[in-house]
DNA sequence: ATTATGACTTAACAATCTTTAACACACAAG
DNA sequence: CTTGTGTGTTAAAGATTGTTAAGTCATAAT
């Protein structure tokens, strides 16, 4: 399971950090740069799947940055973030091959769904990366088919078991926060759903008990962590 | 270069005509429908490359229309146009697989550049309205003739079997929600029809049992998912 | 007209999934 | 240590789904 890499250029440190934290929490590998020059250097050094650029930045504005990057990569999706909502700017942005253009202030959730919409279309370019398979020690976990395979023994997981294990796998060795998991899988983080989640953690532990190198540990008051 | 066909659903006759004229002037073959029902019928009759839907419309609102169309074609790009800018609506729109979401009032030029941005990404996705043939591993499913072919062995499917399998195929690897399938095939989602649907799922599973790479899995409380 | 056939629905019961309840234990703060 | 809250675990309850078979209806064949 490959992580999507996002290059984020935003000179407002507050907004930048906020966005970065949020995107990382949503499992996007996010690199933040505080101006256009730094973002350009970063782009040259590392491969990315998606760009999110503020327009007004020191050293190199978002439009110029996009133009320069388009010279190197004409396919990578670009989303512009800006306080300017003037028509000419929007048009200019799309002329540079933007995939979306969001005017501040915007909600983080809206940015997220727009990112997903763009990636959904971009992913179609290379349609093989849907393989949702994880190696867990002696086990192989197929999130799509909801199977947990251990040699010749195949355990069929239920939907909830599979969704939860997948979230844990996407955050190996990191804390999967309760409320995030609940909102993602149960769409509501009330007391009863939280207890239900605990029950599923027990179920998963039982399923994985044959492999001592894998453990789901609790982080008190925070959530769970899959370690391996 | 074939002309791009746009299905436009907008109940405000003034705005609708204005948009239609504008899009036609920009060389988009545009069909205007004044409500959701007419748009749905039009979609069933002819193949399109892009949908542009108003949200608030008589007979069938834009969201419902999109949901119904997604059952038949899960790939066609959809842009929502609306006066509602509330966060929940935007998120709802994208959850239905929207590609963009524009809040009125907007400039026609901005709509145009956003259309172009969407089409740039979806280029190569041919309109699959009339696609009636699906490859299911070793099987070939002809939805029109209601045949399921496996080498020299041809199984004749009943109408309901075929309709259900077609819906599943149109949503491969995604959850086909019970109530949507029931509304589409049985036109009513009461308890008995739901049970009938379960019976047909069993029948389909039996028909597809020779191909282990294909499975119809249940998503508890939600619906079924054809995975391959 | 009667019978046979096939598609679809309804019934019945088994199996499974998820939630809720109950009680035991662990952790952090005072 | 004690208390309140969070977590581990099991079991039961409640709901959904799997499956087979019988029932219903329309149509075709005799």
Automatic annotation (TrEMBL), chains A, B:
Gene3D superfamilies from the UniProt entry: 3.40.50.2300, 6.10.250.690, Winged helix-like DNA-binding domain superfamily/Winged helix DNA-binding domain
Domain named OmpR/PhoB-type: residues: 131-228
Positions carrying 4-aspartylphosphate are 54
Source domain of life is Bacteria
Residue ranges annotated for the Response regulatory domain, each copy included: 5-119
Feature: DNA-binding region: 131-228
The record, for InterPro entries, names: CheY-like_superfamily (IPR011006), OmpR/PhoB-type_DNA-bd (IPR001867), Sig_transdc_resp-reg_C-effctor (IPR016032), Sig_transdc_resp-reg_receiver (IPR001789), WalR-like (IPR039420), WH-like_DNA-bd_sf (IPR036388)
Q: Which SUPFAM superfamilies match?
A: C-terminal effector domain of the bipartite response regulators (SSF46894), CheY-like (SSF52172)
Q: Which UniProt keywords apply?
A: DNA-binding, Phosphoprotein, Two-component regulatory system
Q: What is this protein called?
A: Response regulator transcription factor
Organism per entry: Marinifilum caeruleilacunae
What are the top taxonomic ranks of the organism?
Bacteria, Pseudomonadati, Bacteroidota, Bacteroidia, Marinilabiliales
